[in-house]
Amino acid sequence: MKLKFTKMHGAGNDFVVIDAINQQVDFSPAQWQALADRRFGVGADQMLVVEKSTQAGCDFRYRIFNSDGGEVEQCGNGARAFVKFVAEKGLTDRRSIAVETMSGVISPRLEDDGSVTVDMGAPVLEPALVPFDTEGLQGQPEGRDTLWPLMLELGGEKETVLVSVLSMGNPHAVQVVADTETAPVELTGPLIEHHPHFPKRVNAGFMQIVDRGHIRLRVFERGAGETLACGTGACAAVVAGIRRGLLDSPVRVDARGGQLSIAWAGEGQPVYLTGPAVTVFEGEIELAIN
Ligand SMILES: N[C@@H](CCC[C@H](N)C(=O)O)C(=O)O
């Protein structure tokens, strides 16, 4: 069976976007992996699937698969690509839509300048709901946040990193580093992702504070490795920075693949993510594996 897809990106976080309203899409984790493969497939950090929603008040259902083949709850950069895709494909004539995801409803809006703003909903700050197991850990209060010590084993050496833990629908652990360019993202990212205190694994963020309205950020993503940008990672980092008393909304986020803007009015309020969404090419692929 040939699968029609669109290759898109949001600040360099790249996607294969698939219309599952007009074609049948029911892939195994191995097939998602094959599609994401950068040599034998199309290549992508995530695959985004557009479905009809059965939830009242929602225009579409949005499903997300990481390049490791696992289905996950949320993807912020993908949400921007999603609204651009459904507009370009004529699946809606609305510029602002409500989208059902595994972790609740989000609302992306196409702006006149071509950028997209997404209401990502309120961050989840309760550790158990992230989910994050705090048993045996002593949290250190900082501002309105709590920093959690994660012990990492690095080639026989033990190192502790202090992280803010929260969910933007998906789990994040954010640490402040002096310089994102020299931060050990490839080395410690996988250890944090698989740390036993995160039962569903975690996205690991490395944030450099430039000033109170500007950060640099690298994210080692769960199920995808380091990406050029992570939308939910940017939301999580800014929420953590504001709660720690280091940042004021709105905040410019420089990722390796582009710039995002995050606004958050505080506890219980939604996080707004603004950034680009770009269509790269259209294609058709016959999956070689079952
Ligand atoms: N790139 C994304 C996040 C995708 C999902 C993530 N890797 C996870 O497993 O939670 C974004 O832009 O938010």
TrEMBL record:
Q: What class of enzyme is it?
A: isomerase
EC number(s) from the headed UniProt entry: 5.1.1.7
Q: What's one GO-annotated cellular component?
A: cytosol
Q: Which keywords does this Swiss-Prot/TrEMBL entry list?
A: Amino-acid biosynthesis, Cytoplasm, Isomerase, Lysine biosynthesis
Highest taxon above the source species? Bacteria
Which reactions does this protein catalyse? (2S,6S)-2,6-diaminopimelate = meso-2,6-diaminopimelate
Q: Where in the cell is it found?
A: Cytoplasm
> Which GO biological process categories is it annotated with?
lysine biosynthetic process via diaminopimelate
Active-site residues are C75 (proton donor), C75, C230 (proton acceptor)
List positions binding substrate.
Answer: N13, Q46, N66, G76, N77, N170, N203, E221, R222, G231, T232
Residues under site feature: Could be important to modulate the pK values of the two catalytic cysteine residues? H172, E221
Please name the pathway: Amino-acid biosynthesis; L-lysine biosynthesis via DAP pathway; DL-2,6-diaminopimelate from LL-2,6-diaminopimelate: step 1/1
What does the record give under GO molecular function?
A: diaminopimelate epimerase activity
Q: Which family does it belong to?
A: Belongs to the diaminopimelate epimerase family.
Subunit structure of this chain's protein: Homodimer.
What the entry lists under HAMAP family is as follows: DAP_epimerase
Function according to Swiss-Prot or TrEMBL: Catalyzes the stereoinversion of LL-2,6-diaminopimelate (L,L-DAP) to meso-diaminopimelate (meso-DAP), a precursor of L-lysine and an essential component of the bacterial peptidoglycan.
State the protein's name: Diaminopimelate epimerase
User: Quick one: which gene encodes this?
Assistant: dapF
